[in-house]
Specification:
Elements lengths: L14 E5 L9 E6 L13 H13 L6 E6 L2 E5 L2
Protein name: DUF7848 domain-containing protein
InterPro entries: DUF7848
Length: 81
């Protein structure tokens, strides 16, 4: 009996990745985080709510001037045929 050699089949495919804008996609969500103390605003579909949180937070903490925007955006990937 001869030696058994493993064989592999490789198949290269092209994939596409893009933001999910389908009607059933999850919503884009926004939040803001204070870079000074790490406190984070509530997450919202409307950016105005986290923005208002920043204004309240810096009003209560006058030395907190730096913030991070956090965006949660749904993406989808599919194989091109």
């Amino acid at each position: 009996m001869g030696a058994v050699t493993p064989r592999s089949v490789l198949r290269y495919e092209t994939w596409t990745l893009q933001p999910d804008r389908e009607p059933d996609a999850e919503p884009v969500l926004y939040a803001m985080q204070c870079a000074m103390d790490g406190e984070t605003s509530p997450t919202s579909k409307d950016f105005a709510e986290p923005q208002n949180w920043v204004l309240r937070h810096c009003g209560q903490n006058p030395s907190h001037h730096t913030y991070r925007e956090i965006i949660t955006r749904p993406w989808r990937a599919w194989r091109q045929t």
